TrEMBL record:
<protein>
    <submittedName>
        <fullName>Dihydrolipoyl dehydrogenase</fullName>
        <ecNumber>1.8.1.4</ecNumber>
    </submittedName>
</protein>
<feature type="active site" description="Proton acceptor">
    <location>
        <position position="443"/>
    </location>
</feature>
<feature type="binding site">
    <location>
        <position position="269"/>
    </location>
    <ligand>
        <name>NAD(+)</name>
    </ligand>
</feature>
<dbReference type="Pfam" id="PF02852">
    <property type="entry name" value="Pyr_redox_dim"/>
</dbReference>
<dbReference type="InterPro" id="IPR016156">
    <property type="entry name" value="FAD/NAD-linked_Rdtase_dimer_sf"/>
</dbReference>
<feature type="disulfide bond" description="Redox-active">
    <location>
        <begin position="44"/>
        <end position="49"/>
    </location>
</feature>
<comment type="similarity">
    <text>Belongs to the class-I pyridine nucleotide-disulfide oxidoreductase family.</text>
</comment>
<dbReference type="GO" id="GO:0003955">
    <property type="term" value="F:NAD(P)H dehydrogenase (quinone) activity"/>
</dbReference>
<keyword id="KW-0520">NAD</keyword>
<keyword id="KW-0274">FAD</keyword>
<keyword id="KW-0560">Oxidoreductase</keyword>
<dbReference type="InterPro" id="IPR036188">
    <property type="entry name" value="FAD/NAD-bd_sf"/>
</dbReference>
<dbReference type="Pfam" id="PF07992">
    <property type="entry name" value="Pyr_redox_2"/>
</dbReference>
<feature type="binding site">
    <location>
        <begin position="180"/>
        <end position="187"/>
    </location>
    <ligand>
        <name>NAD(+)</name>
    </ligand>
</feature>
<feature type="binding site">
    <location>
        <position position="53"/>
    </location>
    <ligand>
        <name>FAD</name>
    </ligand>
</feature>
<dbReference type="InterPro" id="IPR001100">
    <property type="entry name" value="Pyr_nuc-diS_OxRdtase"/>
</dbReference>
<keyword id="KW-0285">Flavoprotein</keyword>
Length: 463
């Protein structure tokens, strides 16, 4: 027997973007229905940023314990890593973070929540599960994304894993091949290597952690490849499941290689979760992958009152961007048809490796062909970094030659997560290099390295 529900705005997906959209709609005084087809709890809390940082924290503890001798501090005996204890803490703390998210969900009235998978049967009409029809005036799609698993790895079964699977381990494996040196692959690959797992990281295109500045990328490659095998121009030619794990053949510039690993961790990208939504039953304009055309400022699908928020729109797969997407989509859904471009923050991304990687504002590949100066600092001899033996990395800042306005930066190095925040604030405020140099810099701090880069840019602006 079918059931009918009526609401002003239906929101498909109760992750970061969906929850933000729900709050925006309710703040506007409209009714909202939050539809979720899977477990509650955001990607970040369950299988993303929080459990990965827990694993990284364990890896940093192990790394620090092994590298005290240069300070004159000697720890007797080898460092012992208990994989069971490592994963127990990762999972218990992860569950604690998920619990906070569930508390937020539980504070939403039961009447505003609807479990089940949603499918469009009209422009704003949904079938949820097998029998519930939801008639909405507008819809927000916030279904997130999923890791891509190329066909050649399908036969490996549970020996081909994605980042989600890592956090279900009860202990650490002996060896892992990481395919994809992007943010996820590099963070997890380095963490596992520091925890005693034999790790190789392979990439095909030469890219590394999303870095587009060649000088920064080269510096990063030197740092990471000193810790574990890192091949950025390699191709996996065959994989075969064996009794011991996975037999892998790959080719790089040095020739053909044959290796055995317990697992292959696939970190080759993510795909928007649009399959099965029934968008073909709407007037949305779909490309050959089924992806709908939408306005990147308002997040509205072309021609219909449906909005695409968060990782599902494949714009900025970051938690703070997903939250902003949800807010913009929710506000525009509530105000429809009077939609408007949403306010955006300065672009900021951080990779929690060691050394860390960050970018702010315009990336190197986005800079104009002329009229730009670049200031830089190499952290090899930067005072505070050398004191802490964290003196690896390179920061490059970009500015307009004529006006001195700060445009952006890319960096690999110490405390990049903190320098990135300072630079993103400066970028959002539209500051010039001169204005940034007028800000206080304490001594001795890593931020003095930023000042060195800014001074380098200022000399070129004033030349």
């Amino acid at each position: 027997m079918s059931q009918a529900r009526r609401t002003d705005v239906a929101i498909i997906g109760a992750g970061t973007a969906g929850m933000a959209a729900y709050r925006a709609v309710k703040a506007a005084g409209l009714s909202a229905l939050l539809i979720e087809g899977g477990p509650y709890g955001t990607t970040c809390a369950r299988v993303g940023c929080m459990p990965s940082k827990l694993l990284i924290a364990a890896a940093e503890a192990a790394h620090h314990a092994r590298h005290t001798a240069p300070f004159g501090v000697h720890v007797d005996g080898p460092v012992r890593i208990d994989g069971h204890q490592v994963m127990q803490r990762v999972k218990s703390e992860r569950d604690r973070f998920v619990g906070f998210v569930l508390d937020s969900v539980n504070n939403i009235p039961q009447s505003d929540r609807l479990p089940g998978h949603a499918r469009f049967i009209g422009n704003t009409q949904l079938l949820v599960g097998d029998s519930t029809v939801v008639d909405a005036s507008r819809v927000v799609i916030a279904t997130g994304s999923s890791a891509v698993v190329p066909d050649m790895y399908a036969a490996l079964g549970d020996r081909a894993i994605i980042n989600d699977d890592v956090f279900a381990w009860d202990t650490l494996p002996g060896s892992v091949l990481v395919v994809g040196p992007g943010v996820i692959g590099l963070e997890l690959g380095q963490a596992l290597a520091r925890l005693g797992v034999r790790v190789t990281v392979l990439g095909r295109s030469g890219g590394l952690a999303g870095i587009s500045d060649p000088a920064v990328r080269d510096n990063a490659f030197q740092a990471f490849s000193a810790e574990f095998p890192l091949c950025l121009n390699a191709e996996v030619t065959s994989v075969e499941r064996t009794d011991q794990g996975v037999h892998v053949q790959y080719r790089d510039r040095r020739g053909q290689h044959t290796e055995q690993y317990d697992y292959v961790l696939l970190a080759v990208g993510r795909r928007p979760n649009i399959a099965g939504l029934g968008l073909e039953n709407t007037l949305a304009k779909l490309d050959d992958r089924g992806m709908p055309a939408f306005n990147r400022q308002t997040l509205q699908l072309d021609g219909i009152p449906v909005f695409l928020a968060g990782d599902v729109n494949a714009q900025w797969p970051l938690l703070h961007e997903a939250a902003d997407d949800g807010r913009i989509a929710g506000q525009n859904a509530a105000a429809y048809p009077a939609v408007s471009p949403g306010s955006r923050r300065a672009p900021l991304s951080v990779v929690f490796t060691d050394p860390q990687v960050m970018h702010v504002g315009l990336r190197f590949r986005q800079l104009p062909d002329s009229g730009v100066v670049t200031g830089e600092v190499d952290f090899a001899d930067q005072g505070r970094s050398r004191v802490m033996l964290k003196n690896r990395g390179l920061l490059r800042v970009y500015a307009e030659q004529q006006t001195g306005r700060f445009l952006g930066a890319e960096m690999v190095g110490p405390a990049a997560e903190h320098l990135g925040h300072l630079l993103s604030w400066a970028c959002q405020q539209g500051m010039t290099i001169s204005q940034m140099l007028d800000m206080p810099f304490y001594h001795p701090v890593i931020e003095e390295g930023l000042r060195t880069a800014l001074r380098d840019a200022a000399r070129q602006i004033n030349a």
